[in-house]
Design brief:
The radius of gyration is 22 Å and the shape is elongated. The longest helix is centred in the middle third of the chain and has 16 residues. Strands 6, 9, 10, 11, 13, 14 and 15 form a 7-stranded antiparallel β-sheet that branches. The protein folds into 2 domains: 114 residues, 3-Layer(aba) Sandwich (Rossmann fold), CATH 3.40.50; 146 residues, Hnrnp arginine n-methyltransferase1 (Distorted Sandwich). Helix content is 27%, strand content 35%. It has 8 helices and 17 strands. With 308 residues, the chain is an alpha+beta fold. The structure holds S-adenosylmethionine (SAM). The site of S-adenosylmethionine has 21 residues, from helix 4 and strand 2.
């Protein structure tokens, strides 16, 4: 009989299959971003903890400078894989792979840097927010003092209305789609620029409850039938250079409950709510959108002016 958290873990993608981890190793945008951010955050002699170490690659990046790295992983297949791969890499011996639930584990001594990549677009499915909040409470209770630096340091969440093609060789299927964030997505028409609906600063308390109500002014006529969710992870803030090292998740495009005809100048009102770590359908089921035609907006404005 699986414990409740294990059941949830299986369904919500905490146990990502091994081949998916190999794809993550081959994702050069992700790898280069994390490598640069970890090189920036980890100073020579630092103590580092990684929560959810997978193949061990991010811990290994840290080991280039760190004195010691604890790499906590829950999935036994990945514990073995991380140990196997680390033993084949120089400095791999500095990484201690710990088979434990990162929701319970604390390192034996204070650490300077904590790496945690349990990130899915919108902070859905994986437990990044819950994990970091749990860690901060337990760490503070055990060691007090300053919190370590987190990699990533923060995340910016945005949403954008789209007209999305849902015809697959003649078969109409409004499905969830993921898009490469680099380059122009074919089959997507953008009706307005993205709007930021959340900023998570992991050095501060982050609420798992995410909700948004906002509006977009339509830039052209057409049919809006989807929302694109964008997640930019701020892996490191380079204060001296006045810049950041970022990693964009794949964009996620969710179909709206019904397509909406819009004209340029109309207002599209959108609302949704979900919990960080929740499922994609939980967000999908909360999506609501309505069009306020330009004329009705000016009537509202006129009424407000009359009352002013
Ligand atoms: C997205 S993967 C990232 C793996 C690795 N850090 C990397 O960047 O390649 C997230 C990892 O966290 C692990 N994980 C999820 N929940 C965990 C938990 N409660 N305790 C320890 N590891 C966990 C998963 O098994 C998975 O290996």
């Amino acid at each position: 009989m699986l414990a409740e958290r294990e059941i949830e873990s299986c369904y919500l993608g905490q146990f990502i299959p091994l081949h998916y981890h190999h794809n993550m190793l081959m994702d050069s945008r992700r790898m280069q971003g994390f490598r640069a951010a970890i090189e920036h955050a980890v100073f020579p002699g630092a103590k580092v903890l990684e929560l959810g170490g997978g193949t061990g690659v991010l811990s290994w990046f840290a080991a280039a400078r760190a004195e010691k790295v604890w790499c906590v992983e829950f999935n036994p297949d990945l514990v073995n894989e991380a140990r196997r791969l680390l033993s084949r890499n120089r400095e791999g011996h500095k990484v201690e792979v710990v088979h434990a639930d990162a929701f319970d584990y604390l390192p034996p001594e204070p650490v300077d840097v904590v790496i945690c990549e349990m990130i899915h677009v919108g902070m859905l499915r994986e437990k990044q927010v819950e994990m970091i909040e749990s860690f901060k409470h337990r760490y503070h209770a055990r060691f007090g003092g300053r919190l370590p630096v987190f990699v990533p340091e923060a995340a910016i969440l945005a949403v954008q209305p789209l007209g999305q093609e849902y015809c697959f060789e003649g078969y109409h299927a409004p499905i969830v789609q993921f898009q490469e964030p680099t380059g122009i997505a074919s089959g997507s028409i953008e009706f307005a620029a993205p709007s930021v609906y959340g900023i998570l600063d992991f050095s501060q308390t982050c609420d798992s409850g995410i909700q948004w109500q906002g509006s977009f002014t339509m830039e052209q006529d057409g049919t809006v039938n989807a929302l694109r969710f964008i997640t930019k992870n701020i892996l490191a803030v380079l204060m001296a250079q006045g810049t950041t090292i970022d990693w964009l998740n794949h964009y996620m495009v969710l179909p709206l409950p019904a397509p909406l005809q819009v004209m340029a100048g109309d207002t599209l009102r959108v609302s949704f709510q979900y919990r960080a770590g929740g499922s994609i359908p939980s967000l999908q089921n909360s999506l609501d959108a309505e069009v306020l035609p330009r004329a009705s907006m000016s009537t509202h404005a006129d009424v407000e002016l009359m009352h002013a």
